[in-house]
Amino acid sequence: MRLNSLAFRLFATTAAWAAIVLPIAGLLIYGLYRSDIVGQHDRRLLLLLTVLHSDSIDNGTDVPGAPNDIGEPLFNVSQSGWYWQIQPLEKRPGRRLVSESLADDVYPLPSSLNVAPGDDERRWANVVGPAGQQLRVVEIMHVFGQGAEAQRYSISVAGTMAEVDRSLSSFSTRLLQALTLAGLGLLLVTLFQVRFGLQPLRQIERRLADIRAGDAQRLDGAVPVEITPLQNELNALLKSNQDVVERARTQVGNLAHALKTPIAILMNEAREDKTQLAAKVVEQTSLMRDQVTHYLNRARMAANVGIVGTATDVLKVGDALARTLQRIYRDKPIEMTVDCPENLRFRGERQDLEEMLGNLMDNACKWCIGHVRLTARPLSDGKQPMLEIAVEDDGPGLTPEQLAAPVQRGRRLDETKPGSGLGHSIVADLVHASGGRFERMRSDLGGLKARIVLPMVAA
Amino acid sequence: MRALVVEDDKDLNRQLVRALTDAGFAVDSASDGEEGFFLGETEPYDIVVLDIGLPKLDGLSVLEQWRRQERKMPVILLTARDRWSDKVAGMDSGADDYLAKPFHMEELLARIRAQVRRASGHAKAEIECGPLRLDTKTARVTLDGQPIKLTSHEYRLLAYLLHHNGRVVSRTELVEHLYEQDFDRDSNTIEVFIGRLRKKIPPDMIVTIRGLGYRLVPDGDAS
Q1: For chain A, what percentages of helix, strand and coil (3-state, to nearest 5) are there?
Q2: Which helix (H) or strand (E) holds A236?
């Protein structure tokens, strides 16, 4: 997960939320549990005090009596942490009674620690007991006797906090475990949620890749309502892109028309003149003509990049060109064969395929003795589906050196030799722009074999 | 031989007319599709040079309409659109040849001659009739290998007869094919030119067939 990603943002937000909320919740729960369990302990102490109190005063004398069995065996176990104590105050002689567990020890009384009594006259304190135990003490005052005989006694019960602390610590351990688990669960759910929630975006990404690969023209299919505007905008953008390309192409065509007629006029005017200036004009206009042709082709090809989702039937193009060429070369008896399976489709514009095949076939017709053959086949090697088209003739062909030399792109060479004119350089440009290969070799018909490999639309 | 040039660019039109005239054609010209169509529909041209991008009616439509009306004269399309798709469309509309701008006038003339020859049934660039020989590439006529000097009208007449040698060519046909549309057509001038030609080539090669016209024959004794 990268830092600058929607997934990270969503994930980080949830993590931060969990980091803040879960500890607070933990503290709250711990506090509630603690007050509950301490309250329970206090209520037990209070109950024991009430029993002790009523037992000790219920003997009809002016002094406290030893209580009966209070109902807590731990009072009888030495240093059990559970004690009680009845003690006279104000330094006057009186009877001091203690639980067996306390024996000769004492524990500090809340009244001696200056703890103020509550609404019910009871005082509470946390003190350290005889064996270093943490004790919770509750104390009540009681006056025994009348008048001058009256003596104030402190009646108190102490209970160890050890059980409460144990319970609290085990609770907090479990609470920590539970909250950690909850936190982890939350993060997992968030991860899933992020993946699931961002799924439509990934889908759009894949479809855009399809469009770039030429498998689709626009984004289709159901997407969540939040993404629908995005999809619509992208489709509109694709459409406007196609329109721009279309306009550019039209304008390139218009430019061609606008430039070529004046060049033709200049060329013809200058050729009738024999001056030096005229010779220069002839030379330069020829150059202009080649440059215009070359750059118009380049501009057109550049405009084609990004045009997507087009497929062209190879057989139809081959047949149309064969028909046209047979008319153009009707003075020459040419046996022209087109051998191409039906439904073989080139991934690209019809115009481009026409341009490639037209130039190759025209060249073949120009140089052949009487036979031109076009063969098209799907290719099975490679990752991408490709097709190969071979145009062969029975003309003079090329020398081995010429065959070995790469095709010059965009340059007119010696037009008196087959396959070295502008035709093949245009083909090389177009094949290159389509992402294909162009090779020339010897044909078994005797002449040149021009072979192009182009991307195919899988059947 | 009569030619029609349909081209909207004034300068190019002028150049074409001049080049064709110099090559021995009687040339009419039109600068838009409608005018061009009308001329091609009514006049018997031996060759038409037709631009595709024309005002009022585009060249392909003009051509298609002619072909629908069974006008079979050879037509060479001229266009700046030199894509193969344009060529296919042009040839499918009924054109006989296709030339992309910018072009060399010599190339156009060569193609025009080739089309004219083909239309009159001659496969070779040189047309022979007895000792007479016309090199369509150079527009030169030789008699027994010696060039003959001809005026432009004499050349037109002899070239037409040579293209159609062996066949009877009527006076009207000659008038229609030798003069521009706005020329004062007096069929008597044909007789004058025939007379002059008979002084430059063996006179009995041109046989007068009374009431029908003329026929060019390889040797004088055929009748």
Answers
A1: 50, 15, 30
A2: helix A228-271
3-state helix, strand, coil in chain B (%, to 5): 40, 20, 35
pTM: 0.61
Question: Do A321 and B104 make contact, defined as CB atoms within 8 angstroms?
Answer: no
Question: CB–CB of B75/B36 below 8 Å?
Answer: no
Cβ neighbours of B101 in A, within 8 Å: 260-261, 263-264
The pLDDT averaged over each successive group of 10 residues in chain B (223 residues) is 91 91 89 92 91 89 92 89 83 88 86 86 79 82 86 86 86 82 72 86 85 81 47
> Counting runs of H as helices and runs of E as strands, what totals does chain A give?
8, 12
Query: Is the N-terminal amide bond of B102 cis, ω within 30° of 0?
Result: yes
Task: Kindly provide the residue ranges of all beta strands, DSSP E only, lying in A12-101, ordered along the sequence.
Answer: 83-88, 97-98
Question: Is B144 exposed, middle or buried (CB count within 10 Å of its CB: 0-12, 13-18, 19+)?
Answer: exposed
Mutate to test the interface with B, among A251, A265, A353 (most CBs of B within 10 A): A265
DSSP track, A56-78: HHTTSSSSPPPP---S-GGGGST
How far is C-alpha A403 from the geometric centre of its chain's CA atoms?
A: 51
**ipTM at complex level:** 0.72
Enter the tokens of residue A432.
């290159």
- Please name each of the domains of chain B with its CATH number: 2-119 (3.40.50.2300), 126-216 (1.10.10.10)
